Amino acid sequence: MFNELKKEIENCKYCKEKFGFEPHPVFWGKQNSKIVQISQAPSNNVHNSMKPFTDISGKTLKYEWYHISDDVFYNQDNFFIGALAHCYPGKDKNGNDKQPPKCCFNKWVEKELKILNNEIYIFIGAKAAKIFFPNENYEDLVFKNNIWNGKLAIVLPHPSPLNRKWIKDHPEFLNRRIYEIRDIIENTLTK
Ligand code: SF4
């Protein structure tokens, strides 16, 4: 069932007309990946590389925040690297990445989440936090351990350079919280 779903997603062209270009669905992970990480949507770089977080956000996330190598991050036994939408959605008229198409979450992501057999979740960015914890304050979520679907769920700010102000305004994220998150990741991966 997992492999069939993966194949269907990889072949999906549902948003082609809306995007105005050929969608490149990015799928990375296994049914039993230990950590399910869900962020917003692939960037233009990832649209071209077809490998998640091969961009500036990825450098911050992997090397500065998680302190892990590409070998660990891209090992699909470790991380299922998903998003609210599988495809880069293009730019708006101001040159910013468009919002992830909502249809992808309903069409695919909900189904994936139902069949994944992970140990913990990491939700990245305010948009993902709002989907999974619609009634909770985003900043509270970042600074505590949460439970979603009966499992530990970490909420991270987005590592994009566009989010630098939030990081600067919340120094306790880099001074304290990220150390706790690194420990959780390490403990999960070495179990
Ligand atoms: S964003 Fe999702 S629904 Fe749209 S084309 Fe890509 S995989 Fe299909």
What does this 3D model show about the protein?
The protein has about 190 residues and is an alpha/beta fold. The chain has one domain: Uracil-DNA Glycosylase, subunit E, CATH 3.40.470. It has 10 helices and 5 strands; from the N terminus they run ααβαααβαβααββαα. It has helices at about 1-10, 15-20, 45-50, 55-65, 70-75, 100-115, 125-130, 140, 165-170, 170-190, and strands at about 35-40, 80-85, 120-125, 145-150, 150-155. The protein has a 5-stranded mixed sheet with strand order 2-1-3-5-4. Bound molecules: iron/sulfur cluster (SF4). Iron/sulfur cluster (SF4) binds near residues 14, 104 and 108.
According to DSSP, the number of beta strands is 5
Structural class, please? alpha/beta
Q: What is the CA-atom radius of gyration, in angstroms? A: 16 Å
SSE string, helices as H and strands as E:
HHEHHHEHEHHEEHH
| CATH architecture title | 3-Layer(aba) Sandwich
CATH topology: Uracil-DNA Glycosylase, subunit E
Outline, from the CA principal axes?
Answer: globular
What ligands does this structure carry? Answer: iron/sulfur cluster
Proportion in β-strands = 5-15%
CATH H level, superfamily name: Uracil-DNA glycosylase-like domain
Separate helix tally? 10
Average the pLDDT over all residues and give the rounded result. 96
Strand order of the largest sheet: 2-1-3-5-4
Number of domains: 1
